[in-house]
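Exam revision sheet. Question 4 asks you to relate a sequence to its structure. Input first:
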Amino acid sequence: MNIFQKQESKITTISEKNESNVRSYCRNFPDIFQRAKGSIIYSESGREYIDFLAGAGALNYGHNNDFIKQRVMSYLDADGVAHGLDMYTSAKESFIAKFSELVLKPKKLDYKIQFCGPTGTNAVEAALKLARKVTKRSGIFSFMGAYHGMTLGSLSVTGNTEVKAGAIGTSNNVTFMPYPYGFMEKFDTIEFIDSVLNDSNSGIEKPAAIIFETVQAEGGIVVAPIDWMQRLRNLCNQHNILLICDDIQVGCGRTGPFFSFERADIFPDMVILSKSISGYGFPMSLLLIQPELDIWEPGEHTGTFRGNQLAFVGGTAALEYRESTNVEQDVKIKDFFLKNFLNKEIASISENIKVRGLGMIWGIDVANFGGSSLAKQITSRCFELGLIVERVGRDDTVIKILPPLTIEIPILQKGCSIIKQAFDEIVSK
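Answer key, structure tokens:
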């Protein structure tokens, strides 16, 4: 019996008997993980895995980042407040001050900060709720291929019909518009939306807001063109529609700048952040709101865990770490490496393999080269070779590369070499 069989046997006797069928990631990565450091995860048996998943984007600064960890440990040693609802605390005050100093003010952004429930989907819910309250309109425009979360409101603006199959009626008052992807790349999607809004017989009412991702991550690593984003912003201005940017997965430096929309030089009316905003994988989400839109009544959107004090501490340390180590420039260097490697070593295998990405989020699309079956074989073989990498996109045909931003170049190269080896072995068969 090999090491994988032993681990799977142990998992079978515990998790499969006691844990719900809804479990997901563990099915694709069947090992028992014990500790992690930087961009490496270690199993109970001592096996090392390079992490190209990074907590689905929640670990931009790596596992157990020393700088952030020390701040958190010092706070705990001092018996700092661990739970505080939305009361004033030193941890929250420090985070707000640092976020304003290092992010908002240098970028000349004037946003109010709303701390939501601990997951990104709650911040999405808050954004949709506030947009409807402000505009007194019920409709929302979202995009085909979008992913915004798993609670009912967030599911309503998520494109994947499979994940919301059990939630009847979630898409009421939501209209899905075409994203510039696939055959729609040759179609002027902004002009189409504009014509729908200007046509009194389109059957579609003006929405309260349009919610979008600058890079559709779960949708298959689809990067929105700069011109498209600028025109979307202008369209919202012309029609008095609020623009909501979901920066949960591709914000916090994933594409290079802190916000992914910066490359288009636009300013959304609301911005949603979660995942890596806490710096350490702690649950945290927030909604940035243009001041004139902040018309909430006290307690109108609330939650027991909207005051995650450890997340405030970790988030403050992460902002300082990002500033002192020049993470943004580091991402540019790794972006250059990934782009060159994937195009030269992977896309060259076949013209039917497409590579897309930006910064430290890249996808290998094999929809027209083996499809979901090949993608699954590749990621499974990668896991056997010591690399954790997942599949996304329509029918899970896109291999998604999402390492910590802080991954060392030699480890990044090794992880990419494993992907190349998996392709060579499986395609040759």
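Marking note for examiners. The first strand starts at residue 33 and ends at 37.
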